[in-house]
Amino acid sequence: MLTAVVSRVQRLGASAIAFGVAAAQVGALLWGALIVVPLHSGRHGLRVVVDLVVKQLYFTGVQGLPLVGLAALALGTLIISEANAYLPVEYAPSTAAHILAKDVVPLAVAFIVIGRSGTAICVELAGMKLFGQLDALVAMGMPLEHVIVLPRLIGGVLSMLCLVTYGLLVATGAGYALSKGLAPLPFSLEAIVSAISVSDLVLGATKGLLFGADFVLVAIREGYSVESSSREIPQATTRAVVRGMGLCLVLNSLLSVLA
Prior knowledge:
Blueprint lengths: L1 H38 L3 H20 L2 H22 L5 H39 L2 H7 L4 H39 L6 H7 L2 H27 L7 H27 L1
Helix pairs in contact: 1-6, 1-8, 2-6, 3-4, 3-6, 4-6, 4-7, 4-8, 4-9, 6-8, 8-9
């Protein structure tokens, strides 16, 4: 009995230590990206960052629009239809609006972006590390925080903010139209839009910002963790997805409860 208890305590302690180490590494990546801006703000360095940010915006933001739009349409239709079916008419539009703006759309967009861009970042950096490209950048005097972390962080955060805004528009507008086509709705689209408050939009944007930073930093950290074999890449990618989604769920719950 005592041995079993000690074993469980040891596993719990090991998990807590591993979580603390991972959190410290993610925090170090963020800190390094923030302090490198004034240190490497020359014209050439800025051009490199801007080029990489544009590429990240295109891959994460532009190419992610169709999938985000489809998911937002499906979720918006579902929530508006369910609110209409199970709630009194005076509460249905406001409830659907709050749920979509504060929780469902930011979280759905985060999961899509983690599955697309988070895995891509992790695989890309793992390959660069295995083939010595990261070491080559360091040898040329180019800090990884400037050419790897900062552009992906900026591009990921901006993409998340844009995709959350786009997803909310699709979920409310197209979701309402499709719900009305499936069954009569006793309330108008204006009732849903007017129910979305400024605090809902601020909370949704805050989640988008944090989720964007979360998926980028976790993916970079897991990509860096690959040491010597390409067989480690699938494991690192799985960790990036699981840990990124888990952190998003924790952040979502904390922000929703504290708001």
